[in-house]
Amino acid sequence: MEHLENMGETAVVVSIDGRSEAVIGIMDQAKDEAALTVNVLQHVYGIKVYMLTGDNVRTAKAIARDIGLPASNVIADVLPAEKVAHVKRLRAQGERVAMVGDGVNDSPALAEADVGVAIGSGTQIAIETGGIVLVNSKLTDLLVAIDLAKTIYS
To answer: What kind and span of H or E run contains 69?
Structure first.
């Protein structure tokens, strides 16, 4: 199981009549454009990028590695309230926070952030909570939104 999780997969044990028969790895892959988006956010815009996820630490760090996010910026095994607490902690440190999410568990943090960005293919509650909705569900549209905001407000 540990091997699967280190590869970024969630291990699922299949049992029949109370006896473990197999272990299956299920992978929640990052969006195709995630690595590009994270790279531009970090290296072009100088934005600190964090991953807040309910996934286990090994799986989260494997995905982070694939998209170029430092392991130190991965906060895993978190519940929705913990995501909110992390957003509050960053804001208390004087950071302006944009939270990007697509699920029910992201919605409270989307509401707490200075800017909540919902993925258009996500849950209805996330879409309703986000101040910005990426209609095409492409993470690179976040870069377009930042450019637009910089153009309008500078």
So the answer is: none
